[in-house]
């Protein structure tokens, strides 16, 4: 059998510190690529730095020596200081103190990880609303909405330009419901407390350690959802991970502290708002308004008049990512002329949006798919009663539950009519439901 090495607890700490310093996640593709380069430089052609090996490396499972060395080398850590030499050491959670110089360099830059917000348009009301909530003492702010609708940009804009003063520390952290919550907690704790010399081993204790920090000093943590397309990185199924994160967020909003967590997510966390009504606020982010949409199209050098501009923005429900992507198609293929693009009468779904919607559809249960099919075939807004009549095989309560989930996943649009609501699908969701579930 090929010789293997295992990461010690101390080693894990050193690796985590070095990784965070580079701004890499625990499943970073760049880390793997750098490790592959390292292997090539060593002339190794029979071993690979795959995602699953990277995970085993961090879990402390034995992996081939040369790959172990490549993961350490990629983050610039001497591998000899990270290996487990004695199984008895497994029970120890002691972590060595780092040199104070390296600790200083790990102290957070307030904008670390915050995306730039060049070419940001509109959102005056949303920015004002969020700013107000941040100044009040809410513990959890949820920004949820469709992929590409501008959740990340919105909170990034606040951080970059409004210079939020209430908090002593600010932390921008990416997360995914499909990646381990424990790893996220370790990342957060190590970023807040770079000179930590011991880390608890289980999730409950990690959460209480984090909570202590949130109580000690007013901290703003942005949890920015990233969607992973490469399924090889998944730690657990979406629904298991989602429930775990919901429970974590619920706990953060119930416990007493002066800090605030802002989460951007395509799926609204369940239960949280009902349980901790006074400490949680939710922003259901919709598309850009027509005026901001026009600014975006102008910024992309498109030619349009009031009517064609409005039609384009509405066709994409004001989704800025879609408008950005489709603008480049209009520039490249229609010489920037919006009228020519629209006269083809086609609704082009940009790849990244198509993937987002298809991923959401794939995860749905059969009754929810039936509801989407029904909405796509009716194509005009309908009431819950009308839906129930169209779907006699689904019980009333299931229809209501399905509507809630679909709405929380940003797949449904809601309109109010007199004293009740009507539901429909956005044009692009409609198109993709037809393509994926009907024909
Ligand atoms: N207010 C805005 N003005 C101009 N462009 C915007 C605005 N908001 C977002 N965009 C554009 O849309 C893109 C997607 O925005 P963002 O990353 O914030 O979406 P998101 O809702 O966080 O998506 P996801 O759910 O995939 O994370 C941005 O990269 C930017 O190009
Ligand atoms: Mg985002």
Brief overview, please?
With 439 residues, this protein is an alpha/beta fold. The chain has helices at 9-22, 29-41, 51-59, 65-74, 100-106, 124-135, 151-162, 181-192, 203-216, 238-254, 272-275, 290-299, 306-315, 320-334, 338-343, 351-362, 366-378, 384-390, 396-408, 427-438, and strands at 4-5, 63-64, 140-144, 169-175, 219-225, 260-265, 280-284, 412-417, 420-425. It is 51% helix and 10% strand.
What does this structure look like?
This protein has a five-stranded parallel β-sheet, with helices on both faces. The chain has a two-stranded antiparallel ribbon with strand order 1-2. A two-stranded antiparallel ribbon has the order 8-9. The N and C termini lie far apart (52 Å). The longest helix has 17 residues. It has four domains: 86 residues, 434 Repressor (Amino-terminal Domain), CATH 1.10.260; 161 residues, Rossmann fold (3-Layer(aba) Sandwich), CATH 3.40.50.300; 59 residues, no CATH class; 85 residues, Arc Repressor Mutant, subunit A (Orthogonal Bundle), CATH 1.10.10.10. Helices cover 51% and strands 10% of the residues. The protein has 439 residues and is α/β, with parallel strands linked by helices. The structure holds adenosine-5'-triphosphate (ATP) and magnesium ion. The site of adenosine-5'-triphosphate (ATP) has 21 residues, from helix 7 and helix 14.
């Amino acid at each position: 059998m090929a010789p293997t090495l295992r990461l010690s607890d101390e080693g894990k700490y050193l690796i985590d510190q070095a990784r965070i310093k580079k701004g890499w996640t625990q499943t970073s593709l760049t880390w793997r690529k750098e490790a592959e380069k390292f292997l090539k430089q060593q002339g190794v052609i029979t071993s690979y730095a795959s995602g699953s090996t990277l995970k085993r490396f961090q879990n402390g499972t034995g992996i081939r020596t040369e790959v172990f060395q490549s993961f350490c080398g990629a983050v610039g850590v001497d591998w000899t200081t990270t290996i487990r030499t004695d199984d008895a050491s497994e029970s120890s959670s002691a972590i060595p103190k780092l040199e104070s110089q390296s600790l200083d360099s790990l102290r957070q830059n307030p904008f670390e990880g915050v995306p730039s917000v060049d070419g940001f348009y509109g959102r005056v009301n949303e920015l004002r609303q969020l700013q107000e909530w941040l100044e009040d003492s809410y513990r959890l702010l949820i920004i949820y909405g469709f992929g590409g609708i501008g959740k990340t940009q919105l909170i990034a804009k606040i951080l970059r330009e409004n210079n939020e003063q209430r908090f002593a520390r600010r932390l921008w952290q990416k997360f995914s419901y499909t990646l381990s919550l424990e790893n996220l907690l370790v990342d957060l704790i190590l970023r807040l407390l770079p000179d930590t010399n011991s880390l608890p081993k289980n999730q409950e204790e990690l959460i209480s350690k984090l909570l202590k920090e949130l109580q000690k000093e007013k901290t703003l943590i942005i949890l920015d959802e990233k969607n992973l397309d490469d399924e090889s990185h998944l730690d657990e199924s979406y629904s298991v991970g989602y429930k775990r994160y919901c429970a974590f967020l619920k706990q953060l909003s119930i416990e007493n502290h002066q800090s605030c967590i802002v989460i951007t997510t395509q799926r609204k966390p369940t239960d949280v708002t009902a349980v901790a009504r006074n400490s949680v606020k939710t922003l259901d982010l919709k598309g850009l308004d027509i005026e901001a949409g026009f600014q975006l199209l102008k910024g992309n050098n498109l030619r349009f008049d009031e009517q064609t501009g409005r039609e384009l923005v509405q066709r994409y429900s004001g989704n800025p990512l879609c408008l950005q992507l489709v603008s480049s198609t209009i520039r490249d293929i229609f010489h920037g002329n919006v009228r020519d693009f629209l006269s083809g009468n086609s609704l082009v779904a940009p790849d990244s949006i198509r993937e987002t919607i298809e991923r959401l559809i794939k995860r749905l249960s059969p009754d929810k798919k039936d509801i989407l099919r029904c909405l796509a075939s009716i194509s005009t807004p309908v009431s819950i009663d009308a839906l129930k009549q169209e779907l006699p095989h689904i019980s009333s309560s299931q229809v209501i539950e399905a509507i809630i989930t679909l709405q929380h996943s940003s797949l449904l649009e809601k309109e109010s009519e007199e004293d009740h609501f009507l539901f429909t699908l956005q044009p692009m969701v409609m198109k993709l439901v037809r393509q994926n579930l009907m024909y």
